[in-house]
Design brief:
Number of helices of chain B: 7
Radius of gyration of chain A: 21 Å
Structural class of chain A: alpha+beta
Low-confidence stretches of chain A: 21-26
Number of strands of chain A: 6
Radius of gyration of chain B: 50 Å
Oligomer: heterodimer
Helix content of chain A: 25-40%
Order of helices and strands of chain B: HHHHHHH
Largest sheet of chain A: 6 strands, antiparallel
Largest interface: A-B, 55 and 52 residues
Distance between the termini of chain B: 170 Å
Strand order of the largest sheet of chain A: 1-2-6-5-4-3
Mean pLDDT of chain B: 66
Strand content of chain B: under 5%
Chain lengths: 193, 193
């Protein structure tokens, strides 16, 4: 009898471990961005970039090949990258998009696995910026950046580990152009001492 | 007088002789020789073997043809620009993202310049071919040396690299926006103390 109990305990323990592993694996860092497709007709400018698979491998190989210290940093920062998906919509007028469209993305980020790393809110332009990360164990498996303003929406979904700090530092350097986002005077970055 | 017609000519009937005939019928002579065989025998030709040879030739020809088509397709895909994935060229990207104009210098690093020169060279080469109406020799695909700099990038590599850099630039700029906001809030909190 004791032997049966021992085996059943081991069985249920193994089942629990398997189910946990399956659940963790099922938590995909890939966001469903198809709902944003409807905004293309209303937006003034649309930027859609998808880099994954062989294209990404090629780009990573090229980045590692370039003989430049910043390029080396970029290559290091994205060495584990599995995919990057960017959607940017610029609108002519305010409130041309439905808030539900962007809230759908934010609701996906409320799912288990995602953690909000940082967020910023500004009454000017009704700006909301959220940065989310997903970790599988100790390894980062995804990053999401959601930006909504009165005339602009930007959603960035990064799959795989990426060095956020290095990427932030590299903004505007090498061949990564720094895209200026409209800021108020008080939002301007402080001069480095 | 007994009629002997039946005995000698088998005319009429003679019950006595008929009885004898029946009794001795088991010893009657029977012709057991085999029927003559046909004299004009047509030899059988095994058609199946011939069909097999034809089939083998057809299969070999098909494989050869498939190999040649595949080789041609591989060579074509290496140089055919129309099959490459779409990417926003630098000018179109600037048009799509107005902020880029103020940030990205028109004249970028040596990498972009190299490709502009390479593109011009290819264009003049194509025009020259069209004017001379001479069948052009296919341009060999440049070999990538890992030690070389970006000057040896192929068209596919350039597209992959540009697309990744665009995605990273948007990502890093938005990450920088959040970082700057947090920094400015920290600074104002320290000042307000």
């Amino acid at each position: 009898m004791k032997l049966i109990d021992k085996y059943s305990t081991a069985f249920f323990l193994a089942l629990f471990v398997l189910l946990t592993a399956a659940t963790v694996n099922a938590q995909d860092a890939r966001l469903r961005l198809d709902r944003l497709n409807g905004l293309e007709a209303r937006a003034r400018d649309v930027v859609e970039v998808n880099v994954e698979g062989k294209l990404l491998d090629l780009a990573k190989r090229v980045t590692g090949k370039v003989d430049d210290p910043n390029a080396k940093k970029v290559a290091e920062a994205i060495s584990g990258l599995k995919g990057i998906y960017v959607r940017v919509f610029n609108f002519e007028n305010e409130n041309e998009y439905n808030l539900a469209d962007i809230e759908d993305i934010r609701s996906q980020l409320n799912a288990p696995g995602w953690e909000r790393l940082a967020n910023a809110r500004s009454k000017r332009n009704n700006q909301k910026v959220d940065v989310y990360t997903m970790f599988t164990g100790n390894l980062m498996s995804g990053v999401a950046v959601v930006v909504s303003e009165s005339k602009r929406i930007a959603v960035i979904n990064v799959i795989g580990p990426i060095d956020i700090e290095a990427l932030t530092e590299l903004s505007g350097r090498f061949n990564i152009p720094k895209i200026e986002v409209e800021r108020t005077a008080e939002e301007k970055p402080l001069p480095k001492e | 007088m007994k009629n002997d017609d039946y005995l000698w000519a088998k005319i009429g009937s003679d019950p006595e002789i008929e009885q004898l005939e029946n009794a001795l019928s088991v010893f009657r002579h029977r012709d057991r020789t085999e029927p003559e065989t046909a004299t004009n025998v047509v030899p059988f030709t095994p058609r199946r073997r011939k069909n097999r040879i034809v089939f083998a030739y057809a299969a070999a020809a098909s494989l050869l043809l498939a190999g040649l088509v595949g080789l041609a397709w591989l060579r074509q895909s290496g140089t055919d620009d129309a099959k490459l994935p779409e990417v926003l060229p630098a000018e179109e990207t600037r048009a799509a993202i107005p902020q880029l104009d103020s940030v990205i210098p028109k004249k970028q690093d040596h990498l972009t310049e190299t490709h502009v020169v390479a593109a011009k060279f290819n264009h003049s080469n194509v025009v020259g071919r069209a004017n001379s109406l001479v069948p052009a020799r296919r341009k060999p695909r440049p070999k990538v040396n890992p030690d070389t700099t970006t000057q040896s990038l192929t068209k596919e590599e350039k597209i992959a690299y540009d697309r990744l850099m665009l995605a990273l630039s948007i990502t890093s700029s938005n990450l920088r926006l959040v970082a700057d906001k947090i920094d400015s809030n920290d600074a104002s909190a320290i000042d307000g103390r």
